[in-house]
Structure formats: C-alpha cells, structure tokens
Write a structure and sequence with these properties.
Chains A, B: Keywords: Hydrolase. Chains A, B: This is amidase. Chains A, B: It catalyses: a monocarboxylic acid amide + H2O = a monocarboxylate + NH4(+). Two copies of one chain form a homodimer. In chain A, about 40% of the residues lie in helices and about 10% in strands. The first copy, chain A, is an alpha/beta fold. The first copy, chain A, has a single domain, classed as Alpha-Beta Complex (Amidase signature (AS) enzymes). In chain A, helix 8 links the parallel strand 2 and strand 3. At the A-B interface, helix 16 of A face helix 16 of B.
C-alpha cells in the first residue's frame, strides 16, 4: 500500500512535467503518424521530407545551417520568424515521432525572432553571429523561468531564475531557443530514457537508441529540429548521440565552455569534470558555436574557466599526422566501424595526410579512474534524490551507479585517484608528442549504434574525459553494409564485456546506418582539433 | 621507555638530514659569529657587508640582480664561477647566522657555473635568460639525486630521481641552484621551524620570524644568499616570508607554474591548490622568473597547467584603478601597516593614479572554506606521517591541523565547499569589475612582522588562495617608527584573534623594520598584476 502510494506520488509529480511538455506542444502542427508511416521509410528524417507535411520552403529552411541562414537574413530573403516557425513545426512533428522534447518554447522563440527581424529592418544589420539561429537545449541546462528537473522526478518543482551562462551567451549572439530536449535518468546513460517524459527514439531507426545522455539533442539534430544543440558530456554524452544520429558533436577540453547555471546532482564533484558542448549538422557550425562562446570571454563571469579566447589554428594537410586507433584493446569495434577506419586510412593517405597506427595507452587505468571518480560518494547523492520522490531506479542508472565503489570513497582514495588521473594525462600527452601524433582517429562507439536500452560500453568516448582531451564525433562517409560487414562468429572475445558488445552486432539491423568516427585532439588544442577534423572530413568525402 | 626509544629513533633519523646539511656546508667559509656581533648591527644583512668577511667584489656581486649579472657576463667582466662562489660564500655565512639552509649544492653549482663560463667563452653567448643566476630552492621541491624530506622526519630516506619540472626549466634557462632552504614542519606555518634542521631566523632581527612556510627562502633572499628563490604558497607561504624579510614574493594564479615533482603529504588534494612561485629582490626579477617559466610551455609536460604563455601586459598609470583595503574587518592591521597604506594612497594620488577604498567581500566565508579544505581528511595524512617517525607535532602544526574538521569530511561536504569556493570566486571577480578596480593594495600581514613561533593569522594572504587571485608582496618604502606608529591601548578588539594580533604590536621591537604591502590582481591576470606593481612601486618610491 505504501509502495503504491509512493508510486502514485512520484507519478503525480512526474505528471506535472509531462503536462508542461504537453501544454507547450504547438497544437497546430500535430500530425497523424500514419502520414509518416505511409512513406514506408525507416529513416524519419527522410520520411518527413517526403510526406508532404512540410512546404518546400520549410524543407529548405530546415536544411540550412548557420552560414546559409545568415546569408538569407542579410539578403532579406528569409525572416527569422519564418525560419524559427519552420523549425518549430519540424520539431513538433519530430517530437511526435521521436519523443525528444521536454518543453517547447514556441511563443518566446517566435517573439525573439520577431524582435530580431525588427532589429534587422531598423538597422540593416544582424544582432550577432547566431542571429535567428534555432537552438535546442538539453533539459538540465538552466532556462530562466522554466522548471529544470534534470530528469529527476524530485526536482520537478525547481524553477530556474536565470538562464545558464551558455544560454545567455548564445542569446546575446542572436540565437533563438525554441525547444528543450530529453535526457536519461541520472544523466549517466549512453541512452535516453527517464521516468518523466520517457524514451527518445533514433530518427534513423526507431528500434535504435538515440544515444545519450544528450539523446534528445541527438534526435533533434538528426531530425533537423534545430541548427545547433547544446549538450553536456562527462563520458560520451555529446559524442554518442551525435554518432548514433548521424550528427556532429564536440566535447571540448573541460573548463573552456561554461557549465555555470546547469542543474544537476553532482555540483562540486571535480574529479572528472563534465562539460557543455555543441551538436550540429556540420563542423563549421560546431566551430561557430565555440567562437561565439569564447569570443564573449565567459571566464569573466564563470571564473573557473580557462581564459582562452578562440584561436585561429594553423593546421595543414601536409604537416598533420593522424594516429588511427582501430581497437582500444578491451572491446573490439563492430565490422562497419573497423571498415570505416580502414577506409579513412586509405583516403587520408590518398590525400597525402600522414597516418600512423595509434596503440592505446593504458585505457584500463582510465576506466578504473573514471568508474571510481564518477560517483566518489558511492552513488549516495543520486540515490537520495531518487528516494526523495520514490521514482524507480532504471536499469542503466543502476548500471552506472554500480561501476564504482558501493561505499563513499575516503578522502585519501580520491586524492590517489586524482594523482593517477594526472599521471595518465601526462603520459598520454607525452606519448602523442613522442609519436608525433597531432590527432587520434578512433571509433565513436564500439558499434554503429545500439538497440534502445542497451549501450553500456563507454570507454571509446569516456577515455577522453578521463584524459580531458577534446574530441569530436562526425560521420565517416561510410555506411554499414551487411554484405561488406559480416559478423565474425569465430571471434573469441577478450572478456564478458567484449562478448556482450560483439554479440550486439546485427548486420541486418545496422545495414544502412551511417558510421561515425571520433577525432581526438591534445588537451587544450580544441581549435587545432576542429581544424584537423575539417581537413580529415574533406579527405573522407573525397 | 618506549617513548624514549621512539624519540631516539626519530632523532636518529633526523640526524641523517642534519649530517647531510652539515657535510654540505663549504668549510672554507665558516666564520666566527663574533665578527658579525662586533658590528653591533641588528640587521645582519647590513652587518655582513660591514664586518670585512666579504671582499668589495663579493659585496657587489651579491648586490647585483638578474639584469646586472647578465650585463657583466656579456661584457666578460664577471665569470659565473666567481659570482656563484660569492653567493655560496655569502650563503655559508648567512646560514651560520640564520640557519636557513637544508643542504648546500656547492660542488654542482660551481661545476655548472664553470660549464656556463665555458659556453660563453666558446660561443660568446649566454645559455639563456638566467645564465649564471644563483637560485635557492625550497626543501620540498625535488632536486634529482637529493633527499627531499619536505620537513617530515619520516621522509628523510626518500631520494628524488629527477628534478622537479620548475627546477628543470630554471636550469634550462641557465640558472645555478646552489642551496636548498628550510621550511616548517607540515609546510603549514607562517613561520619556519621543524624537528630536523630547526628554526630559521630573520635577517632583520633574530627575534623575529622569517615568515613561512618558505621561510628559508625569505632569509636567503633577505640576506642576499641568492638572486631568486623558489618557494611555494597555499596560504601566504611565499608572501609572508617576502614581507617579513624585506623581499619580493609572488604567488601566481594556481595552475600556471608547475608543481610537478614537488614532495609533500597532500598530493591529489585539489580543493585549495598550492603553487610554486618566486622570491626575489625586485619586481623585475619576479617577472623574469615567470617569463622564463611560461615561455618554456610547462603545460606540454605538466598537463594540469593552463596553457598561457607570458603576455606583455598593457597597464598604464592613467587607466589603473587601485582599490585599497586597509583592514579585512576581522583583524586590524598594526599601526605601521595602516600608515604604509595611508602613505601609499597619498603617493598614488600624487602620481595621478586613481584609488578607491576596497571593502572586503565576505572574507569570513573565504576562511571557512580554506580551513575546511586545507585538511579535508581531518589531518589524518599528516598525523600518520608524524606517527611513522614518532617526531613530535609542533604547536604551529597543531594549530594548522585543528583549524578545520577533526574528522575527515564526507565527500558531499567537500562538494559543497568546492561550490562555495567557486561562488566566492565569481562574486569577488564580479565585484572588482563592478567597482572598476584592477588591483587591490592591502596588508601582507596584520603586522610588520612577528616574533618567532607566533604568526597565526593567515587571512591577509590566504584569502587570495581561496580566491585564486595572483598576489605580490613588496616593500612599501615605509619603515615602522615607534614615534609615528603608537600602539592604541584603547582599541577594542573585535574577537580573540583580533586581540591576540593587536597585542602582538610592540613599537620598540618593530621600530625600523620595513613595512611590506601586498598587491592583488584578478584571477589569471598575473602579468597585469606585476605591471601594476611596477607602476605602484614607482609611485611609492617617488
């Protein structure tokens, strides 16, 4: 009886957030999903453009990214209002198919867009480098006046006073925030499900996870509900959704983008730092995002940040050396992922870019450090927050919480782990210098994707959080192919974890899914990494 | 009986370090202290130049700082060997008077100097910007091949393999390390006494503390035993000795100078970060030290560092605004300190530099954060190290260890304190911007100095560690004067701590002692701070 009461109590509370979402959905754009189903198209991003729900203008607008939008605005060809409306419409349709939103901000977005248009009419100039650019924002990033529950039922009542600093800076540059996006319980899944608004689906295939924790952003960018998405990443939470949804995602070196004003459970945990970063539809937009943020000197407000403005990095194909890591030695990537890297190696060589094999350095130590430092309190804080509301702990939350110590670490254990972390960072950096490697090309995940509820192997992305090296996931231009990428039943896994991931490879399921790769830079060489990614993507597309 | 055994055991071990020191002292320069006493001079730095022990050349060499030395070397007028020998001689005399050294490195220093001279003879060029500059180094900074006990008896056997990174960088620039210097037990006193090599005295007056924890450096620079000293500071440990010994000391923003290769008890403690920094005999030499370190990109080795090379800061008297903080609201500075700041205010105004009153912002919160985060383990680590050897815990160690929690903090308590620390840093920075204040001029300590064994009020320096703002201590050009700086018996102290410090003011004792001031910059504006200090010192000397 008591358990029923408790359940009904957390459900009642969760309903508040569901109602907010429901109420916020622009009703004029509700669709009959059968219209999409009738296209018989697995990839709903393609389906939506076939089904007739969007006008040609709306399709063009939602296929345009930052530079294109600014050009249309400057030429007076499009208004911000029309563009923002088109994105809201597409997002409304996308939400019905993918359940990616936690709240639409349609009215304020349209008002902001009108003001931008007014400004342009009156002055002939754009307000900034993101004038009229529709931006989606992950749930736990504070939006002034909104309730930010950070996917915890017990936090549903917390109304945020002020925009998070990252949101303020985006708005100051002219961005229009039109939708908030879903994330998993505890923000510590590479998947996207919670007890409040439920599971987000992948626009490429609804059986697949959109990745996580910025899974709502992955779906939003994949479906083109926004131009830029603002995610967060402490173990792959920007890069996995980007990888799974055929998008671009950048995790900078920690302490470059401001996290000030984020809602979470773990404030003050500094052993492994999460960070804010962008998802987008191309590398240029990731770069524009960072330039916009760093040019505004966020360290003048959030003093924990490193005062490094955006630098124009000098990287040229002739001097770039790319280390390629095909396998981290722990979990073997699926055949399409290996093939994408083999193809990349060929294309890079054909473009005159030097490549070397990157042998991973002590990734098990990285995982050991991460799994202890993610929850140095033994998960007590997060469990206490669940207990407050009585919401059930989901399996992937339990998985994350039980990787490390079940008891709080002692202060001395945390000191030892901090020292091991710094040692590993020094070693890895020294090795890159010693081997003359500027960037490392590697998998974004062990597979091309993962079924809903299943992604558990974090280390292809998380190792770079342990090392605090910037990393960007982007499409490899290779698509999984059941004929080329045969499952190798004879493979003898190195561990249970390797076995689990290896068995997750299903050539039929993944056939046709684009393969992502991840490019990793040196600590604090974020600009050099992004420039290198441009060069490498150019080679992969050639 | 057992306690006697234990005592004899730690004494035996301590004797190893004492023997190393004793053996290292260059015997040819041992003096009869009566020669100094015969000068009837309280300030032994003055006495040593009067007493005839040093030749005119030796006096001139040991009064010359970096630029002067390089000029003489370039002109072929002095050899590095002669200069280094002069400094070793002066240091040997100084050590007998002040007990500031833990080990002389005379032989290697002379060899290094000879190699530098050879290089110059053969190439006509100096090896770097610190060619032949004698540098003293605090005990716990690793010197390859030496035993670094970090003033813990139980660490006396630990032989260091490699030089600390800071030492490597100094040597690469041509510096000659000729002597290692004393520090207090636990490295957490504003004084300089330990169970191994004992108490260091102040060259200005042997009754006074040289300050600490870099007290050996304070005495060394004050007596001109070296041109540059390498200290460390987590609460005032560079600035207090500089202040007490009429020297210059700079604590940079943390994570700019490398601490990699330091020996200590608290590795991995990151709540409040200590840092390495220079002591010197003028501001130019502090700046040269930093330029030398930052130009060598230490972050390429010690990846925890912020990758900021030395910047030429643009600061001009016409645009500089100096906030003056006469009193932190907790402990009232002694009359000579207040007078130095009043004088400074007049001189700054007379030089056309804008000044405003700086009202301290929540310094009690800063102290609360510091006292909890210095020893978040309740002091267990340090006490365990004492127990290992059985060495007695000294009163000032006990004082430091008992400021915070006697029990280890919980992980959640450390998170909360980390968040409070970041909040205070943001607030303080915002306030400086809001008030238009570029730098804050304030006391280096509540008094002009302190009797041996007595300095306990840390907050005039430590607040800037809590805030991670760079700070430099330097002579104010005002000297304590019993006639001008009367004790005010009518003053009603605000607290026991205030009372203790107020009663410590002894006009007779401090008469004639130079008064230090401290200048504080914005977080990460280290170069701007040092440039501002140059301008302000210029005004104070005018």
């Amino acid at each position: 009886m008591s358990s029923t009461n408790q359940q009904s109590s957390w459900e009642t509370k969760a309903q508040i957030a569901r109602d907010i979402l429901e109420k916020s959905i622009p009703k004029q754009w509700l669709i009959d999903p059968k219209v999409i189903q009738a296209t018989n198209t697995r990839n709903v991003t393609i389906a939506v453009e076939k089904c007739g729900l969007l006008t040609d203008d709306e399709i063009e607008m939602t296929n345009t990214t930052i530079d294109g939008l600014l050009e249309k605005y400057r030429g007076g060809i499009w208004t911000a209002e029309a563009v923002v409306a088109a994105y809201i419409k597409r997002a409304t349709i996308g939400h019905q198919l993918l359940n990616f939103a936690t709240e639409f901000l349609a009215e304020s977005a349209i008002n902001t867009a009108r003001n931008l248009d007014k400004h342009f009419r009156e002055t002939g100039t754009l307000v900034g480098p993101l004038h009229g650019v529709p931006v989606s924002v992950k749930e736990h990033i504070g939006i002034g006046g909104a309730r930010c529950n950070a996917s915890f039922v017990s936090k549903i009542d917390s109304v945020i006073e002020e925009d998070a600093l990252i949101v303020k800076l985006l708005k100051a540059a002219g961005a229009v925030i039109h939708v908030r996006t879903n994330q998993p319980q505890s923000i510590m899944h590479l998947d996207c499900n919670n007890n409040i608004t439920g599971m987000t689906l992948n626009p490429l295939d609804e059986r697949l996870s959109p990745g996580g924790s910025s899974g709502g952003e992955g779906a939003a960018i994949g479906f083109r509900c926004s131009v830029l998405g603002v995610g967060t990443d402490i173990g792959g939470s920007i890069r996995a959704p980007a990888a799974f949804c055929n998008a671009y995602g950048f995790k900078p070196t920690a302490l470059r983008n401001p996290s000030f004003g984020l809602v979470g459970a773990m404030g003050g945990q500094e052993g492994i730092r999460g960070c804010v970063g962008p998802l987008a539809r191309n590398l240029d937009d990731l770069m524009t995002f960072e330039k916009v943020i760093w040019d505004q000197e966020p360290w003048e407000v959030d003093t924990v940040l490193v005062p490094l403005p955006w630098r124009e990095a000098k990287v040229s194909p002739g001097t770039l050396t790319v280390g390629i890591m095909f396998d981290d030695g722990l979990v073997r990537p699926h055949p399409p992922v290996i093939r994408a890297l083999v193809e990349a190696e060929k294309k890079l060589k054909a473009s005159g870019i030097e490549t070397v094999l990157w042998e991973p350095h002590n990734h098990p130590e990285g995982w050991e450090i991460l799994r202890q430092l993610y929850f140095p309190d033994g998960g007590e804080r997060v469990r206490a927050i669940f207990n407050e509301s009585g919401e059930p702990v989901m399996p992937l939350t339990e998985y994350a919480l039980t990787r490390g110590s079940k008891e709080p670490l002692t202060i001395h254990q945390t000191w030892d782990l901090n020292m091991r972390r710094e040692k590993l960072r020094r070693e890895y950096h020294a090795l890159m210098r010693e081997r003359g490697v500027d960037v490392i090309l590697c998998p974004s995940y062990a597979g091309v994707g993962a079924l809903q509820g299943t992604p558990t192997y974090w280390l292809y992305t998380a190792i770079w959080n342990a090392l605090d090296q910037p990393a960007v996931s982007f499409p490899s231009n290779v698509v999984a192919d059941k004929d080329l990428d045969k499952a190798d039943a004879a493979y003898e896994p190195r561990s249970d974890e390797d076995k689990k991931e290896w068995e997750a490879y299903d050539p039929e399921l993944f056939h046709g899914i684009p393969v992502s790769v991840q490019l990793v830079g040196k600590h604090h060489r974020d600009e050099e990494l992004l420039e290198a990614a441009k060069i490498i993507e150019g080679a992969l597309l050639s």
